[in-house]
Amino acid sequence: MTSIPLKAIAFALLRELALALLLLLGVSFVVFAILYAAPGDQFSVLLEGQLPSEEVRAGIRAAMGVAQTWYGQYFSWLLNVLNGNFGTSVRTGQPVAGVLLNASLNTLYLTLGSMFVTLAVAVPIALYSSVRGHLAVISWPLTMLGYLFSALPVFWLGYIAIYISIHGFNFFPLSSSSQTPGQHDWLYTLVPVLVLGLGSGTISEVIRNLREEMSRVMADDYIRTARAKGASVWRHAFKEGLLLPVTEIVASKIPFLLGGAVIVEQIFNWPGMGRMAWQAAQDRDFPVIMGIVLAAAAFVRLGSLIQRMIHIAVNPQGARD
Amino acid sequence: MQNVKTYSQTNIEVGQFSQLPLRQKYAIADLLYVAYGLLIVALVLVSYILGMFDLLPHDPQQIHMDMLLAPPASNGYLLGTDFMGRDILSRLIMGIQAYFLPGLLAISIALTGGVVLGILAGYCDRKTETMITYFTNLVDSFPRLVLILLVIAAFKPDIYYIMVVMGITGVPAVATAIANKIRYLAHKNFIEAAVALGLRTRVIIFKHILWYNCRALLIIQATLGMGEAILLETSLSYLGFGVQEPMPSWGNMVQSGANYFLQGNFWPSTAPALAILFTILGFNLLGDGLNNILEDRRGR
Amino acid sequence: MSAAMTQPLLKIDNLRTYFYARSKQSFVRAVDGVSLEVGQRETVGVVGESGSGKSITAMSVMGLIGAGPGVIGGSIHYASHRVKKNLLEGLENFIDIETENGRVMKVRKNESGWQHASERLMSDLRGKEIAMIFQNPRASLNPYITVGEQITEAVRLHTACKSAKEARERALYWLEQVKMDSPRLRFNAYPSAMSGGMCQRVMIAMALSSEPSLLIADEPTTGLDATIQSKIIELLEELKQDTGISTLLISHDIGVISRLSDRVAVMYGGAVVEYGSAQSVLDINAAIKHPYTAALLASVPSEQKIHEKANLQTIEGDVLDTINVPPGCRFHARCNQVTPEIREKCASHHPELIEVAPGHQMRCWRFVS
Questions:
Q1: Is A250 an interface residue toward B (CB < 8 Å)?
Q2: Residue A93: which region, alpha, beta or left (left: phi > 0; alpha: psi -120 to 50)?
Q3: Residue of B nearest to A284 (CA)
Q4: Contact at CB, A259 and B143, closer than 8 angstroms
Q5: The pTM is what?
Q6: Which of A24, A153, A281 is the closest to B231 by Cβ?
Q7: Positive or negative CA dihedral for A176, A177, A179, A182?
Q8: Are the Cβ atoms of C107 and B3 closer than 8 angstroms?
Q9: pLDDT tens-digit series, residues B140-193
Q10: Which architecture, in CATH terms, is A6-38+86-320?
Q11: What are the extents of the domains in chain A?
């Protein structure tokens, strides 16, 4: 029905993809820089971990004399990383990549779930108070509640949740992910998701942002035309007032949620990247934490890429910008 | 759902906007936010100074085996004692030491870096702007906590290293805010007019852009940034990095009280958690309230 | 042509729309007792300077006033062959007014009740019976939806054409009617790809495609290039002939008003000051003329004056402050035709709108015997 300039869109998408890759390259460089600057010859430790066997290691140690320049080391490290070789954990001796994959899926589950919770709470509040304007007195207590939740330290919220579920529901939501699958297993996963969703501090910002955007759009001329036309105002305001701002803020809050995940995973013993990161920092297990940082940054950029793609698909002018 | 509004015109001299009393000028909510926020800032400052000079009601490390887990307002311990009989109030006050100076360091770095980059991005050519945008997107790609854990793993868990990282990761927010502001001013031909008037670039940037137009923005970024710094420091010390027992930090206080919490002794964990809550709330409300008052002119 | 023969399509009676300035704690009397009519098949032009209340009058008719207190009094009778109602029916129940010396000093309004009642009254009229087009057409179209889709939306909402295919045909028909070049191509374009003039054509197509009885055009040519303005006026003239639609045309441009209107209402300070046929109102040499209309007409330079390079005629004084409304005639401070006999009356009493000739109304103490 509507003809979208396909060529322009495809071009814009490719451009976004290229940008994302370029940024990931930058991320890898930053990580490498920290690796390189770290005291204690971390690099060799990492490199040794990345190589398959003792003889090869010995051989490479000799050949290392060749690749003494930092960019040489960077490229060899980067090649390894791109091949999926993140080295081996200093603590367990296991290759990082395998464990990381599992853990990242768990964290993905947690992050997506909590994002859903945040939106489920914030979107209705934002819409209600923006569409009603100042007419709704009830919006103020809700806003206040949003602020309170944002300032709440998520670790404390976690304990409250545990306490309530133990004493209120006879429910032990700790480290149940690795147990034998039971009927109500998914319920166990609800608690950390809820905690991260409510406690990550993003609710009040999302509310504020969405409300501003929606109010701004509602005051726009083309909405006035829609009203004069007798058309559904919601249908016209939805794209710019809800869809675009929501995707934008979700994409921008991913780093935040990942940070919160570290704490929530630690409290609930959730086998995700966050808990791994905490463990790794304590053990100075560099390869592990390095892999996690790379994975986390990749998540962030992926989210941003998806958001940009939605933006382009919805907004015909976006293809041209 | 009745919603009755009353509009009345008094016979007062219809005067200028600024002559109206504060209450009518600004939304009352914003004034309350700012008042509360300022109160919190004052409390933090005072507590910092008290802690610095050790002017505490009790010794924060002193164990009183006879007064374990005392509730608030018992026997001269205003906020009660924790599971080792230590005075909670004194520990809370001392806990501010853990984040105050480091937090200031973080926001100074963020503001300085942000201002420099923001001005470069807003004022200079497209190429510079693109480079700076790349840089800000790059920094934004890292989740703060995870990056700090990386730095801890690579170097050492020194709070100052951590706050430097915190400062750097705070640069994008400030830089984009300033760059946007400059773009807005440029769109309004403000900058063109200044140049046409013959003002030197340095004057335009420092006096007109930064001081007149951006100072509200910077204050708000500073308050919000401090709130974030507190959250970060407490999260880190909760996780076990940063200030170590028996030195108190709000985060490690919550952590050590965790087991007792689950057993039903809520207070040792709750007191520092509430302190975190109300302090961060204060900074956030201060930032938001100031934003509404100074920037949006929502006060009509 | 006389609207008195049959019941007028739109009859606005003593409409009052106020706003409230928080910063000054007082009412902004944007529309303060406006009465005018639009008859069947006629175009009524409303002319006045910025701030005279003409746009607000139009928005009040459509029920699009959002700010408070909004419409607080009067009646708007609408009578087409399909619908007959007072658009402000029963709304006074939600409003409580206190006056002092004839001036409104306090308004209590049940916002939600009023809005609900107003919606119930207006929802089947908007777009279907009364359509409105605005100034700044590019900003008034949804940038995220194609132009064709926006027109088909109107068609499907308000006419019997419900299927997508039929609606598309109708939309294309209307695009042709508004003289859009390559309508099939433009159908799938977005507003950002079109010029202001083209967007205004789209808006007109969108408005007319739902086959309304009344078209309200709020400054349709403002913001467009001069040559495009002319084209749009031509288009409106043609459409007027072809469809026989009644129009309430609002503009500050006398040229536009004179080309299109059958009757003209001149507004100043929130009230109609002169109202009659286009010939009598816009005739610069007529004996019966409101001082403001006279000044307005005189300010448009004629060929001869341009040739002579004479100075532009201006109207002395400042735009009326709709907050501090003077007690007497609103134009008094700027009027250059005050005579000593009526000076006191002009300063203290607000004149009524009275008929000075058949079909010609005037609000001025000079014409009250």
A1: no
A2: left
A3: B153
A4: yes
A5: 0.82
A6: A153
A7: positive
A8: no
A9: 999 999 999 988 888 877 888 888 999 999 999 999 988 888 888 888 888 788
A10: Orthogonal Bundle (1.10)
A11: 6-38+86-320
